[in-house]
Amino acid sequence: MLWTKRKMPGREWPKLMLGAALLIETFIVLPASKFEEVLGTEFALILIRIFFLALFVGLVYAIQRFWFLRAWHWIGTFSSAGVQSALRAVLIGMAVVLLASLLNPLFGRFLTRIGGRPLLTVASLWLVTSLFAFLAVKSVGGIEWITNWVARLRSRREGEFDPSRRNFFRYATFLAGGLPFLAATYGFAAGRLRYTVERVDVPIANLPPELDGLRIAQLSDIHIGDYMPPEEIARAVDMANDLEPHLSVVTGDFINGYGDPLETFVAALSRLQAPLGVWGCNGNHEIYAEAEADAQRLFREKGMRLLRGESAVVAYNSGSFNLIGVDYQRDRMTSWHHTGPMLEEVEHLVRLDMPNILLSHNPNSFPRAAELGIDLSLAGHTHGGQVKFEIVDRNITPARLITPFVAGLYHLPKGRGHSHPGAEDVPALPREKAALYVNRGLGTLGFPVRLGAPPEITLLTLRRTWESGQNPSPWSGSSQSWSSHAYDSSDLKADGIRKS
């Protein structure tokens, strides 16, 4: 069986040490005028990563110290010395397991290899839920302090004591601290396994009539591993096949990292059935595991095709469209290797004589795809945030920190594709829109919970629309008409999706 390459993350330590040395030299030795000269892009990104790593470690330590100290003091309230000793031994054991789970990725997943998956599950759930419980408890404490302060101002008696108010906030603290644990338990036991089929009509201006009604099934972010066994992948594949798509696509993140069974994943995926074939692109986790080439080879061996900066013309119902696929397009914050615009390597692949569909794991490539005149982009990457709350008609999700394209269907004005010969002479159609669909994915990352962002299998149906004042089917001629447009966030539009 082929497993992805095992490499120790220790190869990053020279870069981290170099970044630390640069930090000292920049801020202590060198004058301020030399800062921009010395702090190049690569080193700056290393320093940013060191900063956020230190921030993460400090946050984890502070939160765990809060809970473990409270537990230690609570154990001290028992009168029996034997009970205290037993409970404190259990508490120390829990701390050791938690530390081991944090070190597990750094030391070849030793806990996973010795059957420690249940311990990893409990530890990952605890790490995240303890954060939210900590914030909830502190928020209740802050509200209590404010109400007590207001009460003292109103009564003008500093020493006034209201036992009913104190009891209310005591119970509120227990409730607020317990809710995250109840929610995480639900999200792990049920939320992450409730696959949802999203049926989405994608309007495309002046789509050739032959392509009207073309059905595309999309899977994404499966992340085979501890929490996504082959049996669950088989269930998702069966659900996708039941939709009877013409084309099936998988938009990246097949695995989590080094050592995950890529061959097993591709074998399970090869059961997808579609008359126009099964296509895919790599995600960021294939890059992290250095498995991009292996994934492409395994796809090919199973009769599927994974596109890496490539395109293929797909014929359907006497019509055709251009299918483009790219490896993960890195953002500036995640790579020091990329200096040019996204999708730079595929500009020459965009066709002027037929519709273009792009498979790109990172939805942040969409503005550039729209500029290039690509009609439809299919992406994943965000998991829909995995956890999403709605507060005053506004969705709150961690995915908002990395992209405005969290989940669902989006539109931007479509450009004419400047890289194509003769494109500058094409008349503009300013009302045409490019579309992006972001799939919430099937798997999980970080901790195995989904709340408000259920795992998704998408069936996209292309629909022919008309722009007023335009001639029908511009692809019937020798060139496609596009309007040149620079990306503006005000153009961004997210549309609702229809559930099955």
In short:
This protein has 500 residues and is α/β, with parallel strands linked by helices. It has 12 helices and 16 strands. The chain folds into 3 domains: 9-106, no CATH class; 116-189; 196-499, Purple Acid Phosphatase, chain A, domain 2 (4-Layer Sandwich).
Give the mean pLDDT.
Answer: 79
Find the count of extended strands (DSSP E, 2+ residues): 16
Give the SSE order as H and E letters: HHHHHHHEEHEHEHHEEEEHEEEEEEEE
Characterize the biggest β-sheet. 7 strands, mixed
Q: How many helix segments?
A: 12
N- and C-termini, Cα separation: 37 Å
- Low-pLDDT residue intervals, each spanning 5 or more residues: 4-39, 333-339, 418-428, 468-474, 476-500
What structural class do you assign from the helix and strand content?
alpha/beta
Q: Report the helical percentage.
A: 25-40%
Order of strands across the widest beta sheet? 5-4-3-2-14-1-16
The third-level CATH topology of the largest domain is Purple Acid Phosphatase, chain A, domain 2
CATH superfamily grouping of the largest domain: Metallo-dependent phosphatases
Assign an overall shape: elongated
> So what's the CATH class of the largest domain?
Alpha Beta
How is the topology of this model organized?
Elements lengths: L12 H17 L5 H4 L2 H35 L5 H23 L6 H4 L3 H39 L7 H27 L6 E10 L9 E5 L10 H13 L4 E5 L10 H8 L8 E4 L2 H5 L3 H10 L3 E2 L3 E7 L2 E7 L30 E4 L6 H6 L4 E4 L9 E3 L2 E3 L11 E6 L19 E6 L17 E10 L27 E3 L2 E2 L1
Parallel strand pairs: 1-14, 2-3, 3-4, 4-5, 7-8, 8-9, 9-13
Antiparallel strand pairs: 1-16, 2-14, 6-7, 10-11, 12-13, 12-15
Helix pairs in contact: 1-3, 3-4, 3-6, 6-7, 8-9, 9-11
